[in-house]
Design brief:
single chain; about 190 residues; alpha/beta; four-stranded mixed β-sheet; two-stranded parallel ribbon; 6 strands; about 30% helix; elongated
Length: about 190
């Protein structure tokens, strides 16, 4: 009788575990902005950062990998309208590192929902303008970082939602910094 009471108590307490609080959707704010019109003929993208598929790198597990988000940003925000010259957008970093977090030890750990992993993302992009002869004229640079931990009781679907919101926030920050730096340092080419 005593053993079954203990099992009942454990089941009852487990049922009282807090539910997973998911972050509210953010969205990509920059989609509401007009493209940056550049007096150049074309835009090229170079992926200097080569994503690793081995832990602790997990960016390839994300619904939309950071490299793809940056490439989409280039298409959405940089509009070449000139007849000469070109821009090279170099993706220098687009990593996400997963770190396992320690849980609550002992008996208390059986009844605690801990944060189990932390995800640290970093993005850096360089936009350089060249003339038709390949001579560099000016450049703008931006770097942003963000992190988020997740609870051990999240499903894969819930975890993906957290990743999406985290990456949207980081991408919005990258856009804000790039927009500012492009207008400041590439001013001669912005129409």
């Amino acid at each position: 009788m005593r053993f079954s009471s203990l099992i009942f108590l454990a089941a009852l307490l487990t049922g009282c575990a807090p539910s997973a609080d998911l972050p509210p959707p953010v969205g990509l704010n920059y989609l509401a902005n007009k493209p940056i019109r550049l007096n150049i003929a074309r835009v090229e993208v170079i992926k200097k950062y080569q994503s690793s598929s081995t832990p602790p790198h997990v960016e390839n597990n994300f619904p939309v990998p950071p490299v793809a988000m940056i490439q989409q940003w280039v298409q959405d925000r940089l509009l070449p309208i000139g007849k000469t010259g070109y821009a090279v957008v170099t993706i220098e970093d687009a990593s996400v590192i997963e770190t396992s977090l320690k849980g609550t030890p002992g008996f208390k750990g059986l009844f605690t929902v801990d944060q189990s992993e932390q995800y640290d993302a970093s993005m850096s992009v360089k936009i350089e303008i060249f003339d038709d002869m390949g001579t560099p004229k000016c450049f703008a640079y931006a770097r942003t970082k963000g992190s988020r931990s997740v609870a051990e009781n999240l499903t894969l679907g819930q975890r993906r939602k957290v990743w999406i919101v985290m990456m949207e926030k980081i991408m919005n920050n990258l856009d804000a910094e790039l927009d500012l730096n492009v207008r400041k340092y590439l001013q001669a080419y912005v129409q």
